Amino acid sequence: MKIGVFKPWLFVFPALFIYTVVIFIPTLYTLYLSFFNWNGVAKEKTFVGLSNYTDLLLHDSVFPRAVANNLLWTLGSLTIIMGLGLMLAILLNQKLKGRIVFRGIFYFPYVLSGVIVATIWTWMYNPTQGFFNKVFELIGLGSWAQAWLAEPKFALYAVFVAAVWNGVGQPMVLFLAGLQTIPQDPYEAATIDGAKPWQMFCFITVPLLRETFVIVVAITMVAAMKVYDLIYAMTAGGPAESTHVLASWMYIQTFKFANIGIGSAISMFLVFITLVIIIPYVYYTTKKSHL
Amino acid sequence: MEQRVHPVSKALKYALIIVLAAIFLLPVLFITFTALKSSNDLLTRPFYMFPAKLQWHNFAQAWEQGRMSMYMKNTAFIALIKVPLGILIEALAAFALTRMAFKGSNWVFTLFLIGMMVPIQATLVPLNMILNKLGLVNTYPGIIFIYLGFGIPFGILILRGFFRTIPKEIDEAALIDGCGVMGKFFKIIIPLSMPAIATLFIFDFMATWNEFLLAQIFITQDSMRTITTGLLAFRGQYSANYPLMNAGVLLSVVPVLIVYVAFQKYFVSGLAGSVKG
Fold this sequence. Notes:
The complex is a heterodimer. Chain A is mostly helical. Chain A has helices at about 5-35, 50-60, 65-90, 100-105, 115-125, 130-140, 155-165, 170-180, 185-190, 195-210, 210-225, 230-235, 245-255, 260-290, and strands spanning about 35, 45. Helix content of chain A is about 70%, strand content about 0%. Chain B starts with 6 loop residues before the first helix and ends with a helix.
């Protein structure tokens, strides 16, 4: 088949152009800005080398909290959200009546925006009218009632509960898609050999879901590093800066404090951590696609 | 393994799934109840009690006074331009990457893949500078262009994954039938890829409808706001009127639900094809 040499480039061009202008060049420019002191308005930017980075690591009181919260969020996502998603997928992959309806119920919160989820759960946590405190009152545990989102000890966990409700549908659907590609014969053979259900899970399901696991782990970790909407709309990083993550701290530094250099450096930390997470995934998928 | 499931374990499974589903539905019931109550009901009738009188006008009030209608119109306009245009652009690129063996195609694909890893935050300041220079802050073309950019990596990944599963023999058959490259794209690849395109359509529509951070920065004028930033402004404005706020939440969910339900039959099948790479 004869195709001009330039023709494929014509097809790729619109995507490549928009992508380069919107993502590629701005990311490089942010890297450049992270070496400067700049308020975003002044004509002059002062070159400060790596000092934005060292300032964050050594002198910024919120930055370590934000990193720790991101890591906590990642850990929670990988265990609770992914684990619950896998459990639901396995349950709903079986011939239960109404499984389509159940899938819909667990997936539904995932189609909602972070702001909607945040609004719903802020209302659930409302100190006087909210669901949780009302239930505690009802069952005689009124003393447990809290201003959940205003208490530094609880706020991040309270937001994370909303994230579980919001996010469980995604790994569930991905695992369901993965489970449907597993053939039935290994299970039949294992049944004849007298395998227990948990043995079948560990030695057949998990290994055959390896590809799906790689995808889900990568997506989950990257999403956990980028988490922003829920945090911003539920606590805006408070109380007492206790719920900040890198993304929200970047936003505050850049757009509220006008510390463009510091904000850019935080972005670059995010890029760097995301790259470290994702490189094994890209390596895995590209290697496979060349087979 | 399904045939030898013990009846007791089957009952346990149902019990587990029903309890979990009930827990998952609680917040939805809670906001629906709140949305249908009067402010007075909210104080006097416990949350598990039905409203004394259903306050349907809360929805009308959120729609009109709360300017939900305006926020939704803005978002719908953006999404209905962005999503089809994005899919077309992504499909063209994915088509070249899978059906027109060319030098550097792997390099180009890797470049697109890198885009999936870049956090949006890392682009905000330069994008803000570009949009300000071009006078595109608070405009539809500005935000649509940026949304297009961020949709490209994922769209290409999904469509490329699907296009690769279409047998190469079809290309030869098309060639014999006198099909040009464009004909092959529009008459063969696109129709055959409808499940993947439908999947992408749902994902992209939901992502656009739900997008917050970019809208927060590039749309600051209230009359231009999208549903997410609009809802947040709405929340600030009516922070004491819980019924109205919850009515607004329910209203803003409807369009995504419609799109999801309409396309969901493609969902798992389209996804299964695509995530396998």
